[in-house]
Design goal:
There is one protein chain. By secondary structure, the protein is α+β, with helices and mostly antiparallel strands. It is built from two helices and ten strands. Strands 1, 2, 3, 4, 5, 6, 7, 8, 9 and 10 form a ten-stranded mixed beta sheet that branches. The longest helix is centred in the first third of the chain and has 109 residues.
Length: 294
Amino acid sequence: MFCKIVSLSIFLSLAHSQDEDAITKLQNAVLVLQHRVSVTEAQLEKTQTRLTQADVKLQQAEMNAATLKTQLTSQLNTAVKRLQETGVALSKEGARIAMAEKEIQRLKDNSGTTFVHWGRTSCPGTPSTTLVYSGAVGGTGYDTQGGAANYVCLPPNPQWNKYGQGGTSSGMYGTEYQDLDNLFGTKNAAKFLDNDVVCAVCHVASRSSQIMIPARRECQPGWTKEYEGYLMTSYESQGGKKLFTCVDENPEVARGSFEDKNGALMYRVIAQCGSLQCPNYVQGRELTCVVCTK
């Protein structure tokens, strides 16, 4: 019996010792778990802090994005408004330019200049030059002391008003070529003598100035040459003095006009040295001329 009691006591002691070991292990395990929980809680706290910081940054980024969107929208609206204003201004400017171009064209259409093509019934073939009318050259009689000093280009179809009123008057005569001395070629000398001089009035739409240059065959730079010819006027010892006139170098005559009736006359003009500087002028040479427009 004693032996059983001792054995039971020993068993109980052993069991108690094992329980203590188990408890110790459990306690250690609990400590380990508590440590791990603490570490996990610390990590969770850091993660939560980072999430909170990230959320703050996200909110700030959203606020910045909203502000930037507002700014960009405002800038875009301003740019659109300026483009619209520019478009309106360009439209107005385009209208002004169109009006200016229209006015320029109107001025061109209503501008230009005219000149008389002495000695021809047609106009030169220069650009924008058209015939107004052709006719015969008229002027004051060669031996009269008064009257006009200029030649005129008379149209072939006069229009009359009052006439036959009587009283003192001045005559209008036809004009004849005189003493050409083969100026227009040996074969043509007899043809032109005492024949009537013709003319053509020409309009140049694209040029507004015209000039006759004596003693030249070419125009100045920038000018258009309409025609060249020879300088002619009345005879210096006769009473009816006339202006110097540039007659085409290839003149025509009025058909059926060969008859020595005088009237207004045209003679060649020659250089007379003395007060005229020679050289470059040469005594006795016929003076040329050119009609130019610009």
